[in-house]
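--- STAGE predict ---
source: upstream dedup step, 1 unique chain passed
mode: sequence only
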Amino acid sequence: MKTSADSVRDYLSAVERESSALPADRRQELVADLTEHIEVTRTERPGTAIGEILAELGDPRTIAATALAEAGHGTAGDPARSGAGAPARRGKVHPLVPLLMLTLSLPFMMVFPDLPGPLFGVLFRITGAVLLCTSVHWVAVQKTTGVLLTAVLPTAVIGTWNLTDGPSGTPALVANLVTLALLVCTSVWLWRVRRA
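--- STAGE serialize ---
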């Protein structure tokens, strides 16, 4: 079982690892500041779980990116974002784009059953999965779940369906509608849990 000391050590190690581009003295100062903040917060609020305190501090990657931006690393060439308090890292693609691509991949295949419908559907699904995986708006677990539910599972179901009965008749329509409902529900869930 993981103790609170282990959680703090893992968190600080992650910050140190993510901020490896900083000079050693600045990196040590950052970790010392975070350690002090954690200790002060635990003293002031003794009943608060360590996980809650670490969550309030934020993602180690974001903390490191902010420290790098303040030190003048990582935002070169963009004066609007080089100041203190600037966003650490912004997504280049709006979070709605991968969700729409993943969701619309199946309707392309259903509406245009002959080429180019399936081709566009597969391209949408692959591109949507790649954009989801490279996005800054979700954590790794959410990305993995999203890709499994919107790309891998529907592809496996459609592939299995095509190899067994073929996509004709009412059962194919029901299977496609259930798959579409899975895509929509997963996309709605991903939209709700995204980071701003």
